[in-house]
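pinned: reference chain
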Amino acid sequence: MEVEAPVLYLDNASGKKRYKWTMSNKNQTKSLNDSLSESHGKDIQEFTLTKKAQLYNEPKEPKTVRVDFKYDNSEISYEPGYQLSIFPRNPDETVDYLKSRMNNNPPSDKLVTLQVENDGLWENSQDLPAAVFFDDLLYYFLDINVAPSQELMGVLATFAVDKKEKETLTILAQDDVSYEEWIEEEKAVVETLKEFESVSISSAILAGHLTIIKPRTYSIASSPQGQNLSLVVSVVEYKTKTGLTKLGHASGNLNHMERNMKIPGFIKYAKIPFRLPEDPSWPIIMIAAGSGIAPFRGFWMRRWEQQQDGFAVGKTLLYFGCRKKSMNLFKHETEVGMKSNQGLSSLRWMMQCQDSKLLDFERKVAFSREPGQPKQYIQSLITRDAAMLYDLWQRRGGYIYICGKIQMAEDVGQAVLG
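pinned: its structure tokens
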């Protein structure tokens, strides 16, 4: 860039807030879960991976995986429609590089608290938890996977030794157009430090200008069987305009987990009531696309259980949309539950049930990119089956559930109401 940074701004750049670490010798056995619980006001527990499976093999399509977990706390359970919130971990190589670029790092075996100076007085920072291990902060609290804010760019300019880098960082901090152009490259904190190699910044100052990692929430894709649960995860992976490979923080964590690895999290209700009707005899109509099928797997598993327990279970209808037949998630699992399907012997083996206790389950699928077939979307199936759906919904007291991307939900909603 040829534009020179304003001299006045460079002179005043050192007027940023001052930060420092304080250390405590008390309770040096404080666990990560304790720190996360205090910070987020939730009962955090560990979830151990027991199995991971890729649900289809399409190299040119985004991955979707099923991950199964177990947990130890028998006092915590869930119902179909509940969610699991997890705390993703920053990668080792990212944290190691960050440590190498920061100075005045506190010892890893001491609990630390970030303090900020206000009007000459040092106070605990309100943005980070108090008394937490430095490594826990780096791995589970500080969000280093997002692009630095303009404010942080100005702070980095203060600590850049190279004149050209200092000027460039200052322009990015002050000029909105330049910053918007730069941010299109989607460089995170570590990638930014690699670009501006002369920056030498203390860990306290950098931590004071970073945001906290927010928990990522997924619909639970199972009905409770002991202390186990499943998730269905679409793995986010793409390339930026400049060719950088980007991986979703949470989905990338889950995709790279190995058996017996643990991840912290908590089970919670969905914000919008998303549960089965109290009376299982009422019909349900489930409409989903892609990984939006996740909560409905818990629904049909529970309906199967209710059927085996002798309850009268109403019509269970699933509309599912995906690109290709190979991406038809849980095809076998649901087909064996359909009364007209030839795989009923498989269902009897799976569920150890009698013919009289088979579930009235029906699945209808729309494929939008199947080679040799015209494009079809869920809303066209809804329009086609309007009379049947009206009967199930309005005359027989059925429940309709929609789960997927916003545009799909809006299109389906218009089809249902139209």
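why pinned: The two ends are 55 Å apart (CA to CA). Confidence is low (pLDDT under 50) at residues 1-15, 340-353.
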